[in-house]
Design a protein that fits this description.
25% strand; disordered C terminus; 432 residues; nine-stranded antiparallel beta sheet; binds zinc ion; globular; alpha+beta; 12 helices
Length: 432
């Protein structure tokens, strides 16, 4: 904690949770500063003492904004603290902080289309990145029926749990086991912090959309496959990496592979909960920068893209939504599952829901009977929760340490040593 305080400029009139030093550019050889579309990568100083309150000011210029604390983000019973700050333009800055290692991560999609990101970058310390509008590389969807036609149902009483999802108002939670590729590891000094940001931003999206669901992390593991450019081949290689999706999930409800560049922003099986095929891949640049982590899991729940790009047979209202603009010249928005369309370039952290208004435009985020992905997630939430039992979601992630057989051997050696010592002492006593 002392280290963090010493990093603050002494001239600061009041302490801010994050201070950006635009004059201190980070070398572009830094592993965190090599993303495509990067406009700047500068040093950031953090003051975690004031997180959960106060304001954050990002540098002056076309994207200069003041962000004010709005809400803490669940889950609240873990070490990582997560917060949501908002600007006057309703831009949302999601921040995660881990007190045990002092690392902080953040992301905000600005109204201009640019993104700002904070990342802990190892020896470079914390870096603050400004990224231009991404070259949109939308996400693929896989019809689950084509993937595992003979797979047995993993979720017992799936239909009963869906009925419970329709009738109940109770909240639910589901767990994600994360994998990462070697290339992702090389570009990400703090993988755990990055997954915390994926979790926090998705939970904020659920809050924004009136969805009573919380996503939790269950273990992080390095994948044994390399990245494959073809998105479908990559997906199949990941799905089959351990021989079955049950082994791949490792008792979690869902599993996501974090990757660097491949032929799609992300990819995921559609409507795949009943058979436990809750498997997705997301690119690092898109996972939080474009809400792709939550987008792909939305596919697992049964959500599809906007009606112009998808036809949802299982759930006729399971589509993304193009949010109606205030006027023809204003910025156009769309929900997490909607593809880009003319006049709706900016994706926002909302799942379509006819009962929720988008505050910036004061227009609805869904259409009854056509675009209500929030309902699809809500009715499937108890079934998703029942995919895995989380028995291996422990600190050791199911790995015993040390193995029981080794303990037994050590105990036997200890007892043998004690016996020899007693014999030795007895002989000495007799001799003396
Ligand atoms: Zn998609």
């Amino acid at each position: 904690m002392l280290r963090l305080c010493l990093l603050l400029p002494p001239a600061a009139a009041f302490w801010l949770p994050i201070t950006i030093r635009p004059e201190k550019e980070i070398p572009d050889v830094a592993v965190c500063c090599q993303e495509s579309g990067l406009q700047s990568c500068t040093q950031a100083q953090i003051n975690p003492e004031d997180l959960g309150g106060g304001q954050i000011v990002i540098p002056n210029g076309p994207d200069g904004q003041i962000f004010t604390f709005n809400n803490a983000i669940p889950p609240f019973n873990i070490n990582t603290k997560s917060f949501n700050y908002i600007s006057e333009l309703e831009e949302s800055l999601v921040i995660v902080y881990n007190p045990s290692n002092g690392n902080m991560h953040a992301h905000c999609k600005l109204a201009s289309g640019n993104s700002i990101k904070l990342e802990y970058c190892g020896i470079e310390g914390h870096v603050w990145k400004l990224l231009g509008s991404p070259i949109i590389q939308d996400e693929g969807e896989l019809d689950h029926g084509l993937l595992e036609p003979d797979g047995p149902n993993v979720v017992a009483d799936f239909n009963g749990l869906v009925e419970k999802g329709k009738a109940s108002d109770d909240p639910a939670s589901y767990s994600v086991k994360f994998y990462y590729t070697k290339a992702f590891k090389a570009a990400t000094p703090d993988i755990e912090g990055f997954t915390d940001l994926c979790i926090a931003e998705t939970n904020q999206g659920y809050i924004n959309s009136g969805i009573k669901v919380t996503v939790l992390r269950c273990c992080i593991e390095e994948a044994t496959i390399d990245e494959i450019q073809n998105a479908y081949d990559f997906y199949y290689a990941f799905r089959d990496m351990k021989g079955s999706t049950t082994k791949l999930r490792g008792t979690a409800d869902q599993t996501t592979l974090l990757s660097m560049s491949f032929g799609a922003g992300g990819i995921g099986a559609v409507n795949s909960i009943s058979r436990g095929g809750t498997v997705t891949i997301a690119q690092k640049n898109y996972a939080v920068g474009y809400f792709t982590f939550g987008h792909e899991i939305g596919h697992n729940f049964g959500c599809l893209h906007d009606p112009a790009n998808s036809n949802n047979i299982a759930y006729p209202d399971g589509h993304g939504h193009l949010i109606e603009r205030i006027d023809i010249d204003s910025v156009g928005y769309r929900t997490v599952l909607a593809y880009s369309a003319e006049g709706h370039s900016q994706r926002v952290n909302h799942y379509s829901n006819p009962d929720v208004m988008f505050s910036t435009t004061q227009t609805s985020t869904g259409v009854e009977g056509l675009s209500n992905n929030a309902r699809v997630i809500m009715i499937n939430r108890f079934a998703m929760e029942a995919v895995g039992d989380e028995s291996e979601c422990t600190a050791t992630c199911g790995q015993e340490s040390p193995p029981t057989t080794m303990l037994t051997l050590l105990e036997l050696m200890g007892e043998l040593f004690e016996l020899l010592y007693e014999i030795f002492v007895t002989i000495i006593i007799i001799i003396s």
